[in-house]
Amino acid sequence: MHKLGIAITGSGSALPETSLDNEALTELVETSDDWITTRTGIRQRRLAHPGESLSQLAAAASKQAIASAGITAADLDLILLATSTPDDLFGSACQIQAELGATKAVAFDLTAACSGFVFGLVTAAQYIRTGVYQNVLLVGADILSRWVDWQDRRTCVLFGDGAGAVVLQSNESDRLLGFTLKSDGTQNHYLNLAYKGSSRELISDVNISQGTYQPITMNGKEVYRFAVQRVPEVIDKALFQANLSIEQIDWLLLHQANQRILDAVAQRLNIPKHKVISNLAHYGNTSAASIPIALDEAVRQGKIQPNDIIAASGFGAGLTWGAAIFQWGR
Predict the structure, then answer these.
(1) In what order do the strands lie in the sheet with 251-254?
(2) What is the residue extent of each domain of the chain?
(3) Which of 118, 112, 231, 217 is nearest to 158 (CA)?
(4) Do domains 5-176 and 178-185+217-327 have the same CATH topology?
(5) Quick check: helix, strand or coil at residue 113?
(6) Are residues 30 and 152 in contact, defined by beta-carbon separation less than 8 angstroms?
(7) Is 94 a catalytic residue?
(8) String of b and e for 51-71 (b: at least 16 CB within 10 Å)?
(9) Where would I find the Beta-ketoacyl-[acyl-carrier-protein] synthase III N-terminal domain in this sequence (predicted)?
């Protein structure tokens, strides 16, 4: 009989070595360290060099997560890669599978932008709760520097590259206590990494479009407004589902987009500052990687302890948003 609960048993993260601080950004665009820090809380970000692939970063984070879960790659049944920036448009999860030697695992990509990790967590849980798979590797990884317009000072100051991973395993008690996922495509235009093609006539009367993706565009004001309003709601709903009060939360783990969003959400939920996990000063917004990187750091620093209750929430392009309430460890 399979155990139908889930536990998050290991974490890992990997970041490029190259760092770009706010001072260095002033050489690219008209901005200042003070302007960026006061508006976003970001002081520096890590950038993947041309030889560095998403699969490499993801595999490095995955190896740590697998080791800390006390299993081997051969034990994995499923690899889920949450990313918007694969090395290959057909998907990069299979490359991670090969790199890890996870011969038994089925692997595929999942795209939900900055909500990707939370959406992936809930997706992975369904496979375990139905008894289909026992060991799942969930990776959140993005190399947004590939798709940033480095002349656009509204966006280029925000983003960074990285990868984070967790292992989910079947468990006697279910440690995913509640979740809520949401989408609203009517607001899609506020945050895009859009395809743009030009018309090409193949033969008479047969036209197709060919082109590539364009740099990230964002309406910062609207995305901020959306996050501050929707994220507290969705955390409340997930807490209600988990039958928990806000006071029972040990840690608030939000997608690391902007310190002002983190502060505003915590304030609306009446969560004290010392319970808010934040590392965006060092890494900026790493999209699907931000929650698992912050989680892994807090675990390795000894902040997050076994049985701690974490309220995690991702939000971003789509627009998508969601929250998951889980207990760390078995």
Answers:
(1) 176-183, 320-327, 309-316, 251-254
(2) 5-176, 178-185+217-327
(3) 217
(4) yes
(5) helix
(6) no
(7) no
(8) ebbbbbbbbbbbbbbbebbeb
(9) 108-185
Q: Pairing state of beta strands 135-143 and 161-171?
A: antiparallel
Architecture of the domain delimited by 5-176: 3-Layer(aba) Sandwich (3.40)
- Note if 156 is an active site residue: no
Q: Is the pTM of this model over 0.90?
A: yes
Q: Is 274 a catalytic residue?
A: no
Catalytic residue among 22, 135, 171, 285: 285
Angle between helices 54-69 and 290-300 (to 10 degrees): 40
Share in percent of the chain as helix, strand, coil (round to 5): 40, 30, 30
Question: Taking a C-beta distance cutoff of 8 angstroms, is the pair 9, 138 a contact?
Answer: no
User: Residues 22, 94, 156, 255: which is the catalytic one?
Assistant: 255
CATH topology of domain 178-185+217-327: Peroxisomal Thiolase; Chain A, domain 1 (3.40.47)
Tokens of 310: 């974490």
Tell me the C-alpha distance between 215 and 145, whole Å: 10
Residue 87 DSSP one-character state: S
Element (H, E) at 181: strand 176-183
Which tokens hold the place of 15? 């970041």
Along the chain (330 residues), what's the average pLDDT of each consecutive run of 10 residues? 89 97 94 93 97 97 98 98 97 98 98 98 98 97 97 94 98 97 97 95 95 94 95 98 97 97 97 97 98 98 97 97 97
Catalytic residue among 22, 94, 114, 282, which? 114
